[in-house]
């Protein structure tokens, strides 16, 4: 224990529990430790004063409740930490000091404890702190005006009582406090006593009693537990003068009695008594004596004057005794007169009492009233001393009741104070709880944000080893399996709220995990599993954010208050933030119907059902039925609604596409329409999905967008190039230096509205905005993708690398909100053209492209005329018998396979047949495969047993090299004139066949590059390289460079050959093989690294051999004899 404490003393601890009555109380020395707000107790004071002594125990006052034990005197209880401690003081005042000091210390400690928690100074805490400060400033000495004997339990009589600096002395109910604060109550008591004396004895009190609280001196510490004089009725209680003198010598009061009797018979005698009790110091005694002397006079017509006596403190013995004797004689006369009047009064009262008894008996007999009137009769005294004894007994009883009243008032005041303080503490606790709850919510939100950031960081650790997303991705994470275990914990926690979230086990199961949109996810790679789980958890935590709930409320309010979805600033802001899943179907439907409202009103409500009924027998539909059937199965092969030909989604999709062919025969079916209709079927009915297709092809886009020449889509790519040049000049210059056409990548983005180009959640946000704002959203998102990956694209130094990174940038755009902010912020800052300006620019480019397309058509018509003229000449020759009939099928292509067999394609311009020739057996047989176009070229992928056939009908067909069964068919933008390939060993699965990169020469003068070609249906991403000529690309071959062994691609276009590096598709060199602009290369053939490349020019008998790098012509040979 330290050398000084604010509160200490001796208390008795009373046992509690079922056997407490059989146990005795124990005395301990208690010390309050302010630093910890604990009440410690020791065996005695000596042990408590030792510096190194340990307490026997302690009571935690922090948060404790202090109660008074009414059934046990001077006892109080402390309820702390689920236990009750009962302590007893020596007297009531000591108990009140303890409980009030503990109460004040508890409140002060609580107020002090509130500050470090960062909750701020609340109103209640400030109020409590102010009260504690006032108590500290106004606190008196620990004695509080009481005698030293009151504090014997606070360390003994010789130990100086410590000052309790935090005790609220004003709250302690002393005798003086009771008298000062309850004058009304004491006045009533005095008046009642005066009335009783007047009624019983014929006396009246002329003045109320005055009471004062005196301080006992150290010399009077043996006066017991009295704190001071109480209500002093000694003026009416003296038995004899000797007793008065004895009391006067002990307490040194000055008392004066003045009694007067009326002179007349009608007058009533009065007894007037005033007294004061003074302290121990002489100055105060003198003031009290002078102020307490009382004189009373009574006058009447009878003329008997009253006399009084005064008792004064005398300095000389004889004179004092004479005066005292005179006073006693006067007192004796007065008392005799009082006794005479009393007897008269008693007689009168007896008479009145007998009358009342007679009246009561009469009423009982009559039965009119049933009540019992009881009244104690006046006592009859045999002598004056008996009367004084009775008065003294009643006065003692009154004093005892007064003392009990004071104690109860003190208890009541403390209880009220404790209730107020506990209420204040409760309010502070409630405020603290609210602040803590707010802080908890903030921390929880911060934790959720940290989780989202952690998951987003995991997603950003993606790497694409081969540069192509379709080859697979990897997550480069430090820490081994720690991140996977952490993801498992987060996933288990999130699945409690959302059980639809995937598990690691479901991702590796054969059936995979099916999400809420119907897409099946099955990931064998651990990196892909971690990435997909991270994405799903990131989306889950996004739904727990406050801004998500606020966005939902805004949408609910908007839908409730708006019947139409006209384009407004509010609706635009809401849609750019994303349409909630629960409202997407309804909002899409309203936006689509707003676009086709005029068409629907003209066509009628039953228009779609009529188209469906006519489609089965329509010749228009028959022209597109096969292509539609081929595209159906590759629309959404990973979705359970479109995974088989019997799926409901496939049936609906076929119905929609066929109905559209009837609705717009001039357009019919075009590449990308299946994706648009399929996307609509995920959220709309089949009729609404049909109107979505109508709105896209006829309302949102230009009418030439989905024609065979795709003039509208090509014009948009030129507009996009202008925007890239304006907003990203460095990237535009870099792309131009590499001689790359960005439109070869972005064309499919625009045709299919980014379907299968962006992650699905990002795709939904784009579609939300597109259905409201139109095609300008496509430009905004294209610029956002390029902007977000500009740095990575600028680091690419080859064509294929830039294409792959551009493709990967779109596929890995998982940050939906970030991409949307970039898209629309870029439009506001850099000035993306408005819809009207975009339409104007598109119109200019469409006019230029239409003119170029018309020139191309004229050349084709001229070629067709030449063919017709040749055909007429052939017919004439047949008529003359110079040649056979041309109706016989012609061989259009052939190739040899590694097993020694030969594949031959023959037919006419409408269809082709495929047969196989076994040279060793001299056997040729048909494979039963019919191609609905003339086959122009063929190529064998030996490693995967696949034969590719290019057709003039603008598609590539794949056949199984063993059985001849058709595996798949891929649509191309123009006729395929030549095919070659390069194996890609890095993409080959373990134990599986290698995939190939296929190069196709198109009649449009461009080279198409298809990645990862094998036995499976390829995806829709195709790269196109514009060779820069107006002539078609007629031949393509792959050769090996002699110096580094790298591959070089020879592509013939007109009278020149463009050489490209096969790995990067960068331009290597250009070789002009003829000076005549109308000449064209007929074919190219690789003769090996040591030999070179053979080529032939159409219509020329010369065969040339060039070096593999195209640096020189090694041989020219004329085959004419």
UniProtKB/TrEMBL annotation:
<keyword id="KW-0175">Coiled coil</keyword>
<dbReference type="InterPro" id="IPR050302">
    <property type="entry name" value="Rab_GAP_TBC_domain"/>
</dbReference>
<dbReference type="InterPro" id="IPR035969">
    <property type="entry name" value="Rab-GAP_TBC_sf"/>
</dbReference>
<feature type="coiled-coil region">
    <location>
        <begin position="391"/>
        <end position="418"/>
    </location>
</feature>
<dbReference type="Pfam" id="PF23748">
    <property type="entry name" value="Beta-prop_LRRK2"/>
</dbReference>
<dbReference type="InterPro" id="IPR011047">
    <property type="entry name" value="Quinoprotein_ADH-like_sf"/>
</dbReference>
<protein>
    <recommendedName>
        <fullName>Rab-GAP TBC domain-containing protein</fullName>
    </recommendedName>
</protein>
<feature type="coiled-coil region">
    <location>
        <begin position="328"/>
        <end position="366"/>
    </location>
</feature>
<dbReference type="Pfam" id="PF00566">
    <property type="entry name" value="RabGAP-TBC"/>
</dbReference>
<feature type="compositionally biased region" description="Low complexity">
    <location>
        <begin position="243"/>
        <end position="252"/>
    </location>
</feature>
<dbReference type="GO" id="GO:0031267">
    <property type="term" value="F:small GTPase binding"/>
</dbReference>
<feature type="compositionally biased region" description="Polar residues">
    <location>
        <begin position="269"/>
        <end position="281"/>
    </location>
</feature>
<feature type="compositionally biased region" description="Polar residues">
    <location>
        <begin position="885"/>
        <end position="896"/>
    </location>
</feature>
<dbReference type="Pfam" id="PF00169">
    <property type="entry name" value="PH"/>
</dbReference>
<feature type="compositionally biased region" description="Acidic residues">
    <location>
        <begin position="866"/>
        <end position="876"/>
    </location>
</feature>
<dbReference type="InterPro" id="IPR001849">
    <property type="entry name" value="PH_domain"/>
</dbReference>
<feature type="domain" description="Rab-GAP TBC">
    <location>
        <begin position="578"/>
        <end position="774"/>
    </location>
</feature>
<feature type="domain" description="PH">
    <location>
        <begin position="4"/>
        <end position="107"/>
    </location>
</feature>
<feature type="compositionally biased region" description="Low complexity">
    <location>
        <begin position="291"/>
        <end position="310"/>
    </location>
</feature>
<dbReference type="InterPro" id="IPR056602">
    <property type="entry name" value="Beta-prop_LRRK2"/>
</dbReference>
<feature type="region of interest" description="Disordered">
    <location>
        <begin position="238"/>
        <end position="316"/>
    </location>
</feature>
<feature type="region of interest" description="Disordered">
    <location>
        <begin position="862"/>
        <end position="896"/>
    </location>
</feature>
<dbReference type="GO" id="GO:0005096">
    <property type="term" value="F:GTPase activator activity"/>
</dbReference>
<dbReference type="InterPro" id="IPR011993">
    <property type="entry name" value="PH-like_dom_sf"/>
</dbReference>
<dbReference type="InterPro" id="IPR000195">
    <property type="entry name" value="Rab-GAP-TBC_dom"/>
</dbReference>
